[in-house]
Prior knowledge:
Blueprint: E1 10-14, H1 18-33, H2 40-58, E2 62-68, E3 75-80, H3 89-92, H4 106-113, E4 116-122, E5 126-133, E6 146-151, E7 161-168, E8 171-179, H5 183-199, H6 205-215, E9 222-229, E10 233-239, E11 243-247, E12 252-256, E13 273-276, E14 282-286, H7 300-303, H8 307-317, E15 325-330
Antiparallel strand pairs: 1-2, 2-3, 3-5, 4-5, 6-15, 7-8, 8-9, 9-10, 10-13, 11-12, 11-14, 14-15
Amino acid sequence: MTSIPPFSTTHVRIDHYSAVHLAAETARALARRHRLPGSLSDQAAVVASELGSNLAKHAVNGSLFLQPMPLGGGLEILATDRGPGMPELRRCLADGYTTTGSLGAGLGAVVRIAADFALRTEVPGGTLACARLAPPDRAGVTNEAVGAVSVPAERETTNGDGCAVLDVDGRRTVLVVDGLGHGEPAAEAAQSALRAFARAPEGPLPEILHGVHRALRHTRGAAVGLLRHHPDRVEYAAVGNVRCVALTAHEVHHRLTGQPGIVGLNLPTPQVRRIPREPGLSMLLHSDGIDPRWAHSPAPFLLRLPAPLLAAALADRHRLTRDDATVVVAGPHQGLM
């Protein structure tokens, strides 16, 4: 069985300075839970504290998303806000620089600590940042073009969604699952789907869907979407409301929805949609906890975001809070590029 790195997102709203301490301790605990070696747990706490502090001081509607990296092996801290943006980005990245309305002195420390750091800002509109921390033997994964966020519905402590990104034989395959309803029964269905995917992730997409269907027969069922990168094409197969979007930095090229049905209860004959690969094409899967209207006329700023920041932006700005929400943005495996 292929190992799937455990993935879940902790969302910390930075609506008061007391939330900064919570974010730092959450980052430290998460790094220890995933057995990051040496001082990485303390460094994770520093990164969360610095990004959180600046959100508390200067941002509007600031949030941190803390999670393992989608491909495993490290930790990812995403910061989002809808504030004034950073008009002097280069100066803000320098140590010791601070000004009202922008990230301040802490950003230089974050840049030094992170194995990979991405930041985009819109004036006005807000700022998005992603800091990835990983041990030296996993440093190569930190710049992979993969981003994901998966959060439960508001007032729920258990996430009925799930996702996984696996690289097998040079091909990247993505799964997004949305267990019916909310809470523990939905989470049980999602986890069963992830285990079935891990048992045979290399097969054709219809074969994987049939395997997940068998595994979910004694659950309440789920919507399931699958995506696979090939050298010349991308394949998509889904049952239920897991949507696929193909986009470049300039426009949305395709918007696809799954076939009617419920995996585990009534599986239709799976159909595979094929999208030709072209330079700069990114693929995105999301559950119905992300408002699909985002893809109808997205802003140019959104289209140009790298994978982890696009996932964070959709989870922060286009999430339907009454539902579990998952989004995965995945470019091809580096071996296919």
